[in-house]
Write a structure and sequence with these properties.
Radius of gyration: 20 Å
Number of helices: 8
Organism: Darwinula stevensoni
CATH architecture of one domain: Orthogonal Bundle
CATH topology of one domain: Death Domain, Fas
Structural class: mainly alpha
Strand content: under 5%
InterPro entries: CARD, DEATH-like_dom_sf
Protein name: CARD domain-containing protein
CATH class of one domain: Mainly Alpha
Length: 137
């Protein structure tokens, strides 16, 4: 189900790829970077390329960022004065079941990251304690 939802996000962008080529993609990409949906390095790599490559980048990267990224993208397109295109994208957004699946996947990923961070923190604390013991001797 997650793969289908991600594929649908890519398809939505693909269906509007011609229209996307005529908007301020550099501005959209800058806004996505500010929203932390693309990395600083990714931004600087893609901003130098042509419109087709930028649209392909969006088509490839946004699905991995989840439903919130798609909605943020649509909001950015709207804020940049492309209301008609934003309305079209909004009209094609994912169905409820797909949204829930994407959100559940993101929640699972966050939970796993939190567990890993707690383990790292515990390991660092153990290292600090061991270091203190060694220094006291």
């Amino acid at each position: 189900m997650l793969r289908e939802a991600m594929s649908e996000v890519a398809s939505i962008i693909s269906r509007h790829s011609e229209e996307l080529k005529f908007i301020d993609l550099n501005g959209v990409l800058a806004d996505l970077r500010r929203e932390k949906l693309i990395l600083h390095q990714e931004y600087h790599e893609i901003v130098q390329k042509g419109s087709k490559d930028k649209v392909l980048f969006l088509q490839d990267h946004l699905p991995w960022k989840g439903y919130i990224a798609l909605m943020t993208f649509i909001d950015i397109v709207r804020r940049r004065g492309n209301e008609d295109l934003a309305d079209k994208l909004q009209g094609e957004k994912l169905h409820g079941e797909q949204i829930l699946e994407l959100m559940a996947e993101q929640q699972q990923s966050l939970s796993e990251s939190i567990v890993q961070l707690k383990k790292i923190k515990e390991s660092l604390q153990n290292c600090k304690e061991a270091r203190s013991d060694i220094q006291r001797r």
